[in-house]
Amino acid sequence: MLILMQQVRISITYYIIIYLVTKIYNIKEVYYYICLGNKKILGRFRSVFTNDQEQEIVNYLIDMEKRFYGLTINNIQTLAFELAEKNNISHNFSVTKKMAGKDWVKGFRKRHPEITLRSPEATSSARAQAFNRPNVMKFFTILQNVQQKNSFLPHRVYNVDETGLTTVQSKCSKILALKGRRQVGSLTSAERGVLSTIVVCMSAGGNFIPPMIIFPRVRMKAELQDGAPPGTIFYCHPSGWMQLDIFTEWFQHFINHAKPTAEDPVLLILDGHMTHTRNLQFIDLARKNHTTVVCLPPHCSHKLQPLDVSFMGPLNTFYVQAIEKFLRNNPGRVVSQFQVSKLFGEAYIKAATQMTAINGFRKCGIVPLDPNIFDDSDFIAAQTTEIALIDPPIDEIALIDPPIDKIAVIDPPIAEIAAIDPPITEISISENKTSNNQGETQPCSSFTVSPVHVTPIPKASRIKARSTNRKKGTAAILTSSPYKAELEASKAITPPKKRLFNKKKPLCKRQKKSKNTATNDEDSDAECPYCGGTFSQSKSNEGWVRCSKCMKWCHDGCAGCEGDTFICDFCKTLSKVY
DSSP secondary-structure letter at 308? Predict the structure, then answer.
């Protein structure tokens, strides 16, 4: 066999035509091409684009996906047609539809198996903008200094977060059904469920603090506690959301289980919710009980919070399975508040594993501490709006070697000071710009008109000015002395009473009483569902926006909405069942 292949190659070297070679050695024409260079041929079909051109298209698709502007199948079909037309490449695409065919897409995906069809996870614009290198590096710098000062062991590093569970499953599980059936249904308890808040806390060593459940009601009943995980505590509030006093009670529950001491302190990592950062009683209690509290950067919990990264997803999946099992085993019954504890208990036991907790902290780069856990590709999405360059200068928020007690904190009204003992390492703006430029797609010479020119990468020319004087937050140590002092000072300042909107004249005398009553109730003291802050505590010219579904008011900074109309995240969560 080897001798035959050598003879074939010698014959090709001497320019013997293909026909004679195949006849002399009694081989097929395909084998001739194999001997020529081990190349696979496609018969009479040829690719529209060369290998280099297709690789450039692949790189463009990956870059757009990282920027949260991924292309669909129809988009890539249109892109292929426009590239062939503008580069004068011979093709057999549909001129009437101005799109490449499905066969070309199928072959393209087969030639490039690294490209696959995925269902993306919805990510808000605020999260895409806020997760940038300066914010993340500042958080890790604070963690590094805190760790150097106290040397926290993995089992003494905790993360706490709240999540909402409804009586209606957010997404039904896939089931087996007849192929070709147009519509497949699955039973739910109602059109819209009742939301209860769950507070979960875990450590980097795999320990879990017993959870808390907040029911949207006024009075507690013993039946609500049936089937809950052992040690669970229960509270009631008309809204069903976390409040300042309820979070303080949870922290006392946390102290009873974690038992922090001066010889064995505890590090608690949490997000920038109003009940955390504006809770003076909680901060005093943490300082007295040897607990260091570090706050995450705003809108970065989807990448930096271990519970969001590893625990909440499996918990929601198991909770949906528990609801479907209950409905299947109890025909005619629906899930109400009295079954939430039992269903949550079944899901919590399955999700709360030691490996889940360890992987969550490792994936976020917290334990073990790894500031380089995120590379340039993770920050590409923030380049669309250049959020790091629009913010105030880095030196104004104390990022470059401040002295003790001079680190910026997260809460908007007091975002200028916080404290850590070791100095903070400087983060250079020029380095950030360099890394951003490296992440951008550069034109390639394989195309005369490249994909970037056909479909340009989205770039915001200018960010709309914020309609409020609410200061942006950043990572901070909430238990530092300067933070507490600034919080006390801000609490002492009582802002003037404002009205949410101008009161309109009643249409007639008969409606006057009910109209004024409804207006006074809304104007009295609106509460932001995101942070828990009330309208009476807000500063002057601070923007508020109203949800078009539940009609609740919230800070436009908390909602991440610049317009006058929007739908809050709570309504979006409930609408997933439709």
Answer: I
For residues 241 and 225, give the distance between their C-alpha atoms in angstroms, rounded to a whole number: 18
Confidence (pLDDT) at 530:
75
Could you tell me how many helices (H) and strands (E) the chain has, helices first?
A: 23, 10
Q: What is the pLDDT of residue 499?
A: 46
Both 272 and 368 in one domain: the answer is: yes
The DSSP 8-state label assigned to residue 122 in this structure reads P
Position 376: which residue type?
A: D
98 and 234 co-located in one domain = no
Query: Taking the C-alpha atoms of 464, 467, 470 and 474 in order, what is their torsion angle to the nearest 10 degrees?
Result: -10
> SS3 for 208?
strand
| 260 in the same domain as 225 | yes
| Residue 434: per-residue pLDDT | 38
3-state DSSP assignment of residue 139:
helix
Strands of 147-222, DSSP E: 157-166, 195-203, 208-215
Structure pTM?
0.69
Q: How far apart are CA 453 and CA 281, in angstroms?
A: 56
Q: What is the residue range of 547's domain? A: 535-574
DSSP 307: I
Q: Could you give the residue ranges of the DSSP H alpha helices within 42-165?
A: 51-66, 73-86, 102-111, 125-130, 133-150
**pLDDT, tens digit (0-9, with 9 covering 90-100), for 166-219:** 999 888 888 899 999 989 998 898 888 899 999 999 999 999 999 999 999 999
Domain match, 103 and 221 both:
no
Structural domain contains residue 465:
no
- Is residue 575 predicted with pLDDT exceeding 60? yes
Counted domains in the chain:
4
The CA distance from 84 to 53, in Å, is 11
Q: Are residues 233 and 297 in the same domain?
A: yes
Examine the domain organization and report whether 234 and 297 are in the same domain. yes
